[in-house]
Amino acid sequence: MTMLAMETDPQGRVLMKGRLDASQAAAAQAFLDRHVGVLTLDCRALDYLSSAGLGVLLKTHKRLMASGAGRLRLTGVGGHLRDIFVFSGFDRLFEIEA
Amino acid sequence: MLRFPRAIDALPAIFEGTERWCAQHGIEKALRLKLDFVIEELFTNLVKYGAGTAAVGLTLRSIDDGVQAVIDDPDGQPFNPGEAAPVDTSAPLERRHPGGLGLHLVRRLATDVDVQRNPSGLGSRIRVSVRHPASPGAGQNPQEE
């Protein structure tokens, strides 16, 4: 079972790997709260996302947008994550790159 | 039946249990993730709002085209996922807020949701199924939205 792992690459993109569930949401939120501006979240290695994870992404997106020119961009959204984004309508809220 | 403490921190152990069971029963990853999602949303709802104290039971069963999960809550306040408030998923960003999506998504991903309340008035048994995407009634295809 792969727990959640997060890192920021040299280009400033956040890479998430594993599972963003309710037990990991607080840690994920704390990690994302350290970032400002336009933040790209690479989801290629993120296997699983629950509604708690959606809440983390929404809260981060709103915070970044409230700062002026910031926002949360997503890449590598596929499979399970794509279903969750579409069913929740979050695919309309975020800029999502293939 | 597996039993888990009524705590969000129990989720990793729950997922270890579903991963092991799915490996033993030849369930592919995509269906396991759907199963995990449904179980997490129902379990966290019990933890947050159920007000019970006893451990929560989980039983998994193979069905023809998927998996049935049975969640036994011995002493929490019963709730029916089918009665949760609807979510306007087309609302703009300013009217979207964290929270409230879990049971909405359970209704989209799961089938055959059934809640039996215990005769005492506290506690319930929730049965819910997840099915292979190609199965009839497996849930709406995102591309059909």
Into which percent range does the helicity of residues of chain B fall?
A: 25-40%
Main structural class of chain B: alpha+beta
Distance between the termini of chain B: 37 Å
Coarse structural class of chain A: alpha/beta
Q: Going across the major beta sheet of chain B, what is the strand order? A: 1-2-3-5-4
Largest sheet of chain B: 5 strands, antiparallel
Strand order of the largest sheet of chain A: 1-2-3-4-5
Largest sheet of chain A: 5 strands, mixed
* Overall number of strands of chain B: 5
Strand tally of chain A: 5
Radius of gyration of chain A: 12 Å
Helical percentage of chain A? 25-40%
Instruction: Name the poorly predicted regions of chain B.
Output: 141-145
Q: What is the strand content of chain A? A: 25-35%
> How much is the average pLDDT of chain A?
95
Number of helices of chain B: 3
Radius of gyration of chain B: 15 Å
Shape of chain B: globular
Mean of residue pLDDT values of chain B:
90
What is the strand and helix layout of this fold?
The complex is a heterodimer of chains A (98) and B (145).
Chain A: E1 5-8, E2 14-20, H1 25-32, E3 38-49, H2 51-66, E4 71-75, H3 79-88, E5 95-97
Parallel strand pairs in A: 2-3, 3-4, 4-5
Antiparallel strand pairs in A: 1-2
Helix pairs in contact in A: 1-2
Chain B: E1 2-4, H1 11-24, H2 29-49, E2 56-63, E3 66-73, H3 102-109, E4 111-117, E5 124-131
Antiparallel strand pairs in B: 1-2, 2-3, 3-5, 4-5
